Amino acid sequence: MRDLEGEHKPVGTAKEEARRRSFAWDLAETLLIALVLFVAIRGLILNYRVDGSSMEPTLHNGEMLIVNRRAYMGIPLGRWLAALPGVEIDQDWVWYPFGQPKRGDIIVFRPPNGGSEPYVKRIIALPGEHVEIRDGAVYIDGKRLVEPYLTEPTMWRGMALNHEYVVEPGHVFVMGDNRNNSSDSRVFGAVPMSSIIGKAWLTYWPPDEAKLLGTPAYALE
Question: What gap in Å lies between CA 119 and CA 133, rounded to an integer?
């Protein structure tokens, strides 16, 4: 009688190998999905740790933020549409599906001095606007900006001097909420929009201080 051992594996062994292959496939599939989700999420949001006191009392040293990296995503539709025959359109037109930077937004941006650590500041003025610091207050195009989050007057580089600045196209003027303890656009000028990493969305650490970071409803008087 022929020994069939070696030609046919016991049923139990075959089922065990099938289970192992199924487990290995499920594990690989789960890891792949997790990797794809991780890359997608990292493309949308960023963790940021506040370093310093320049945004007090709104943000404190050591707080952790979630930053929306796609808040100001721009799509150069003008460049694409201009390539179509018979279409007359400004090639520089950029569509912002989620909106452009607004006054009051708290943003994280690459440092203008070439450093490695991003800055976090608040947008005060937009492209083309005239900024004036006068008598401890900020004026935009001649109207006083009401800033309820401030606890002290605004000065220019630590001095009670009047100063004016016109924001260049494609730039924003930023300042810290801790107005007189902040290195910001009063020192290094307006920030190019291309340097903005994202908009600060919420704080999540410490948990008892977690909060959404909305944009104030500004008043110009």
Answer: 22
6 φ/ψ sector (left φ>0, alpha ψ -120 to 50, else beta): left
The two structure tokens encoding residue 87: 């279409």
- Confidence at 113, pLDDT banded by 50, 70, 90: confident
Q: Where are the domains of the chain?
A: 1-45, 50-71+102-220
- List the catalytic residues: 54, 121
Residues 6+ apart with CB under 8 A from 208: none
Condensed to tens digits (0 to 9), the pLDDT of residues 8-44 reads 556 567 667 666 667 667 666 666 665 555 554 555 6
pLDDT digits (tens, 9 = 90+) for 71-100: 888 777 776 666 677 667 766 677 777 888
CATH superfamily, domain 50-71+102-220, is Umud Fragment, subunit A (2.10.109.10)
